[in-house]
Amino acid sequence: MEYVSRERVRPLAAVLSVVSLAIVFAAAGGRVPQSVVPRAPGWVLTTIPHVNVAISATAIFTITIGWRAIRRGDVERHRLAMLASFALFAAFLTLYLYRLVATGGPQPFPGPDPVYQFVYLPILAVHILLAVVCIPFLYYALLLAFAYPIEGLRRTSHARVGRIAAGLWLISFSLGIVVYGLLHAAY
């Protein structure tokens, strides 16, 4: 069943990517006023990073399951795992952006300056870069999956783009867990 017009996959992926990244950069850049998000108790805001690290670990698991499933030819398991991964990613991003806007910006690094400059910032930069780069790949692979039946999907770039997206996704989620560890466990 075709849910997305095949001719519109590329432009729709581009539009979704631009809109998504605009929202992320607006929130990260302080362009979204705190008044647009509902107020939450302090305990909710302090719990979000812990929930997000659990979401990240679960997403690593579901991406890995999806990757292994398709290598074994289990298309249905792959589909379910990747849809779950995308839902986890959306939940992570929603919670992260909510906390970012509600608290007025990113959490400051509590550790020593050399660790901040030579460990934390490079890891954070790669994490953010990969997260940004993977967005168009994710949308494109997902939209291709909705636009073609399974038999027709093999004639598209879904597998190639999906491998790139999954690889970027796995590394980004993994580095996000490292960032969490530096912010909440190490210091």
Automatic annotation (TrEMBL):
Residue ranges of the TM segments: 12-30, 50-68, 80-98, 118-143, 164-183
The protein's name in its UniProt record: DUF420 domain-containing protein
Regions annotated as coiled coil: none
Record-linked InterPro entries: Cyt_c_oxidase_su3_a-hlx, DUF420
Keyword Transmembrane helix attributed: yes
GO molecular function annotations of the record: cytochrome-c oxidase activity
Keywords, comma-separated and alphabetical: Membrane, Transmembrane, Transmembrane helix
Pfam family, one: DUF420
Cellular component per GO, a single term: membrane
GO terms under biological process: respiratory electron transport chain
